[in-house]
Structures are given as structure tokens and as C-alpha cells.
Amino acid sequence: VVALFASPHDGATPSIQYCERVPRPCRYITLLRHPISRLLSSYSYFCEGCAEGGRQCRGWQDPERLTCPNMTRTAYAAYFGDLYTQTFAPKGLRMLGPEYSGLRSPVDLADYFLRSVFVMLYEVDFKAERPLARFAAWTGDRWLATQVSDEAYREDGGGATLPEGESAAIRKMLRNDLELWTRVSSRATLPPAGTA
Questions:
Q1: SS3 6
Q2: How far apart are CA 127 and CA 57, in angstroms?
Q3: Could you write out the three-class secondary structure of 92-106?
Q4: CA triple 13-14-20, angle to 5 deg
Q5: 3-class DSSP state for residue 18?
Q6: In whole angstroms, what is the distance from residue 173 CA to residue 169 CA?
Q7: Quick count: other Cβ atoms within 10 Å of Cβ 132?
Q8: What is the structure's pLDDT at 12?
Q9: What per-residue confidence (pLDDT) applies to 15?
Q10: Beta strands at 11-13 and 28-32: parallel, antiparallel or unpaired
Q11: How far apart are alpha carbons 82 and 117 in whole angstroms?
């Protein structure tokens, strides 16, 4: 199983072509957070906290535009934009072929790709019953299924609220990711819970 993560500092890793290159069974999984929760968490950790060696602070990545820690949440959202859509739409297009580039929206392409992988939704799955057991069933891994009988989860400390004007501006900047989240999370409630 290969984990794919959309991250504000290095995109999705590893390449979607990884499973196609290995000579053993391989499947993709990704963990998605609600786009606004992801943004607020990333802003707090990377921008305000200058974490991981200050990779987003002191102008290391883009000194003209990425000005952490002296950057507003709205400016941070504008800088990174729809991270999930930007990360997964090219992978959907690669799966469909270039002839589809003008026929589908970036959200459609990202959604197409995400239908081909196991998606765990942080705010949905980790408050639901036994998400790792569902994952073990999806992979067919009998050993993993025996290890997840007593799953325990911490509550997410998120839930930060934004002032109305800031919330509207950030929602507008993340509108594609919010639409993608709505599509993917609507499938997560269908039996057998999950999006695979």
C-alpha cells in the first residue's frame, strides 16, 4: 500500500506511477482533511509556528510571496489555493488521457482519480467506528485485520472559527477543494463505509 498525501510543501508523494513500477501487489491510499481544517492546521504549524526548520518562513521557498510568519490566513490560502484539486486533477487527467483536458473541470478530474484510491476522511473516518478495520478489509490484509480490534482515536483539537469576512474569502479561494470534499465525503457514508 502506498500513501499519497497532498501537502503544502511538497505536493503528493510518491508519484502515482509508483504502483505501476513495482513487481508486487500495490494499492494507493490517501488521507484527506476538510480543506479549511487542513488550511488552518497548515497555517498554524508551518506559517505561524515556522515548523520543520522554518521551511515556509524567512522566505526560503518564495521570498516575494510566501512571507511566513508575517502572513495572514487569507494570504496563505491565496498562496496555496485548492491544494487537493491541484494535486489530484493532473493524476485524473493522466488516467483518462489528454483528450479529456478540456472536457472535464479540474474538480471532475481530481474526483475521478480519488475514486480509484482508498480515501480516508480525517473528520469523518476518525470519528467513525473502526476505520482501520475497514481499511484492512479493503486491502485484504488478514494480519492487519487482527491488529486493529481495539482501535482508539483522539479527538481532533480543530474546530477553529473564522471571522465571517475572512471565512467567505477563504471559502472562495478553496471552492474547488470544498466541492471535491463534498463529493468524496458523500461517498464515505455509503455502505460499506469508505470511498474505495
A1: strand
A2: 33
A3: HHHHHCHHHCCCCCH
A4: 150
A5: helix
A6: 6
A7: 17
A8: 46
A9: 55
A10: unpaired
A11: 20
Task: For residue 36, give Cα distances in angstroms to 31, 177, 187.
Answer: 15, 9, 19
Q: Among candidates 167, 166, 60, 171, which has minimal Cα distance to 51?
A: 60
User: Among residues of the chain, what percentage have pLDDT more than 90?
Assistant: 26
Taking alpha carbons only, the member of 10, 2, 3, 32 closest to residue 183 is 32
2 vs 95: which has the higher pLDDT: 95
Q: What is the DSSP string of 128-177?
A: SS-HHHHHHHHHT-HHHHHH-TT---PPP-------HHHHHHHHHHTHHH
What's the pLDDT tens digit per position in 117-131? 877 776 655 555 566
Give residue 145's pLDDT band: very low, low, confident or very high (50, 70, 90): low
Q: What is the mean pLDDT of residues 15-38?
A: 77
- Kindly report the pTM of this predicted structure: 0.73
Cα 50 to the chain's mean position, in Å?
A: 21
Contact 158, 6 (CB under 8 A): no
SS3 for 81?
Answer: coil
Q: Are 96 and 104 in contact (CB under 8 A)?
A: yes
CB 121 within 8 A of CB 188: yes
